[in-house]
Each structure stands twice: as structure tokens, then as C-alpha cells.
């Protein structure tokens, strides 16, 4: 079995998706995120935008190999909102994503079953409207060398079609490369075996 080195996520946030049930309105939003600070920012913005709403329920997942997630019912009955939203994140197999469902209460109670269905459906519709992309899991390396070894390093980078993310080319040179995970060890060994050139993961 080969080690997984791709994941699915979204690059841009989606327009609000509206789902209605018995006069209650559910607005679904999806955002690309990389940290819990991103989550707080988006929730706070939605609370300002939908200040008259009753609930701002959400779920998120961050990470590709070490996953962290959270589901929040925000005052709805236990597991009637956050977990149905998170279930859709799992169902679509996406990560680095936040889904928020904002609810305006319409005066008629939906019951726990109705709530689960409404939050699940809104999250599903939101993900269906999102542009989901497949990305590679990459390893970043810092290569350090003297200027005289520049041609050697650059030749390998060109041959292997490596992606340079940062470089400092002076008397002592540093280049940061991003390598797809399944090719990372091979690339590391090529540079590691070269005289006067050091490579380390960052």
C-alpha cells in the first residue's frame, strides 16, 4: 500500500447557501482554513453579518496527517448540529475547511431529528457548491551550499522539476524547496550525498 500524499480541500470560500425548513432558515458557508484563529475570525464576521440569527453552528477539520477537528452545536440540542455538519466534511473527505450553518428560528420547533436533517442537508449543499481541489502533501527542505556549488544544485532542481519556494543567493546560498511527499526521501538522498551541500527538513 502506498502512503497517501494527496488531500482534498477548497481554495476559496463559497457564497451563502440557503436551506429552509418550517419557516427556519439555514445559511451554509464554507471557508478554507489553516488554524483555529481562522475559525474565530470567520465566526465573528458571520455573527456581525447575521446579528439577528439564533445559532451559528459549525464544524472544522485541519491537517493532512495529524488531524484536528471540532464540532459545535452553539446552543442547539447535543449532537444535533455540529456533528451532522462534521459528518459531511468526512463524507466529502475534505480537510483544512470550516463549515458554518447560521440558523434563523422560524417559530416552529423542528425536533432533534429535524435539526439533524437540516444541518446535515445545509452542509451537504454547501460542499456541493464548493470547488473541491486535490492537493499534494509536501515536505519542505532547506538546502545550504557555497556559491561555487550553485550549478550542481540548480541542475538537480531543474532535472527533478523541484519547486523553489524561497532562495537567498549570496556567498553562502540557501534555497528552500517543496517536494511531494512520496518523492521526498529520494530528493533528500541526492542532495545529502553531495560534498559541501547540506539539506535538512524544515
UniProtKB/TrEMBL annotation:
Signal sequence range: none
Pfam families from the UniProt entry: Impact_N
GO cellular component: cytoplasm
One BP annotation, GO: regulation of translational initiation
SUPFAM superfamilies associated with the record: Ribosomal protein S5 domain 2-like
Residue ranges occupied by any Impact N-terminal domain in the UniProt entry: 22-126
Domain of life: Bacteria
Entry's family note: Belongs to the IMPACT family.
Protein name per Swiss-Prot or TrEMBL: YigZ family protein
Originating species: Hwangdonia lutea
Amino acid at each position: 500500500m502506498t502512503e497517501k500524499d494527496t488531500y482534498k480541500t477548497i481554495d476559496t470560500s463559497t457564497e451563502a447557501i440557503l436551506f429552509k425548513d418550517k419557516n427556519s432558515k439555514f445559511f451554509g458557508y464554507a471557508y478554507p482554513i489553516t488554524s483555529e484563529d481562522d475559525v474565530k475570525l470567520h465566526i465573528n464576521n458571520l455573527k456581525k453579518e447575521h446579528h439577528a440569527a439564533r445559532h451559528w453552528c459549525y464544524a472544522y477539520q485541519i491537517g493532512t496527517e495529524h488531524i484536528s477537528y471540532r464540532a459545535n452545536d452553539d446552543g442547539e440540542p447535543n449532537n444535533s448540529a455540529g456533528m451532522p455538519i462534521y459528518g459531511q466534511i468526512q463524507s466529502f473527505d475534505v480537510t483544512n475547511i470550516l463549515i458554518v450553518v447560521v440558523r434563523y428560528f422560524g417559530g416552529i420547533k423542528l425536533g432533534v431529528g429535524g435539526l439533524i436533517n437540516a444541518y446535515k442537508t445545509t452542509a451537504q449543499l454547501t460542499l456541493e457548491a464548493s470547488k473541491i481541489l486535490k492537493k499534494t502533501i509536501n515536505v519542505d527542505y532547506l538546502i545550504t551550499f557555497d556559491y561555487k556549488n550553485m550549478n550542481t544544485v540548480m541542475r538537480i532542481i531543474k532535472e527533478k522539476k523541484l519547486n523553489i519556494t524561497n532562495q537567498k543567493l549570496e556567498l553562502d546560498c540557501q534555497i528552500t524547496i517543496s517536494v511531494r511527499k512520496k518523492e521526498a526521501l529520494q530528493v533528500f538522498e541526492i542532495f545529502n550525498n553531495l560534498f559541501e551541500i547540506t539539506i535538512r527538513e524544515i
